[in-house]
């Protein structure tokens, strides 16, 4: 088993199987078990790993196309998302939907998820412990979807996904690379920020158009194969 295979199993929390007697085993390689949507969804719904479970109405798993080429990742459910069980359905969500439309995507064509699956009380920032407990679910969603491009909206998502503390402003305008899977990742403002600072909507539109250039013209998924345009941009700007 090579290093990346073992890291993959670790991410999925699958114990690596060790041969006791190599000579006795046949030579067929074991096939790693992929997470499946149904079990992932039920594990999220039943999760009590952090204190947020006690104040939630329900968990907010994610929504959209499971074969999306573009995956949008936000911070955490707010009041409306907690009530309805779907990410980005409040005012910020309506703006996000309009932003996606401006680059030719219906909401149903992308996949939308959050760093946290439960609403923090009074929409406070997620705590490091909550992020640590919850993000393995997001990581598995990313493995299942294999998006061609990730759009991180806001500071919390960008900092977690890129393992950085750099300012959002300094992260914009570059193609980053998410994890060892090297998924191209673009950073933009959170739509809730844009509601408070509409002057920056133009800059967000520039970011979204930039993300759009990395995708196939049709918006169709390449199933995890990095599009040529993104490979070229990545090799110029990888951080
Ligand atoms: N803000 C987020 O980051 N996510 C949501 O789902 C709603 C608001």
UniProtKB/TrEMBL annotation:
Q: Which reaction does it catalyse?
A: Hydrolyzes single-stranded DNA or mismatched double-stranded DNA and polynucleotides, releasing free uracil
All copies of the Uracil-DNA glycosylase-like domain together span 61-209
Source organism's superkingdom? Bacteria
The family database entries (SMART domains) matched by this protein are listed as: UDG, UreE_C
Known EC number(s)? 3.2.2.27
Q: Which residues cross the membrane?
A: none
Keyword DNA repair in record? yes
Q: What is its EC class?
A: hydrolase
UniProt-listed GO biological process terms: DNA repair
Q: Does the keyword DNA damage apply?
A: yes
Protein family membership: Belongs to the uracil-DNA glycosylase (UDG) superfamily. Type 4 (UDGa) family.
**Protein name as it appears in the record:** Type-4 uracil-DNA glycosylase
